[in-house]
């Protein structure tokens, strides 16, 4: 179970760090121009940057506390925070009539729920 949780957390961290960096570093027009990026037109540039910052912080929170041995309880909390981000993303896509994109967000949501559950109950970090 520990290997599965580390693998899921690591892959999620990489995905959210990449996604968050794109939202932080790229202008809104570039984000909106990506395939399936039309949702970005619904938000102000500052809101996109804030979303990116939340994703990047969550990505770091999925792995760094456990790797450094500093407050590893932050790992499931980061997963829960990113679940909230994905709930918002699902709502945006459903409102825009994009159920396939919402389904993709649900996959991330489910993986994050696995990490949160695993690190809170099934295989918490000790020590």
Automatic annotation (TrEMBL):
Q: Which domain of life is it from?
A: Bacteria
Gene Ontology CC terms, in alphabetical order: membrane
Q: How does it sit in the membrane?
A: Multi-pass membrane protein
What Pfam families does the record tag this protein with? Answer: DoxX_2
What are the UniProt keywords, alphabetically?
A: Membrane, Transmembrane, Transmembrane helix
Membrane-spanning intervals of the chain: 6-26, 47-68, 74-94, 106-122
As for subcellular location, the record says:
Membrane
Question: Know the name of this protein?
Answer: Putative membrane protein YphA (DoxX/SURF4 family)
């Amino acid at each position: 179970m520990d290997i599965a949780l580390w693998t899921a957390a690591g892959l999620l961290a990489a995905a959210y760090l990449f996604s968050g960096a794109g939202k932080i570093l790229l202008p809104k027009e570039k984000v909106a121009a990506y395939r399936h990026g039309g949702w970005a037109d619904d938000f102000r540039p500052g809101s996109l940057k804030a979303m990116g910052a939340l994703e990047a912080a969550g990505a770091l929170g999925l792995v760094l506390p456990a790797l450094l041995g500093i407050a590893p309880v932050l790992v499931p909390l980061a997963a829960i925070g990113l679940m909230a981000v994905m709930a918002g993303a699902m709502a945006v896509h459903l409102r825009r009539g994009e159920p396939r994109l919402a389904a993709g967000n649900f996959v991330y949501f489910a993986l994050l729920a696995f990490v949160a559950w695993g690190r809170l109950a099934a295989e918490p970090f000790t020590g």
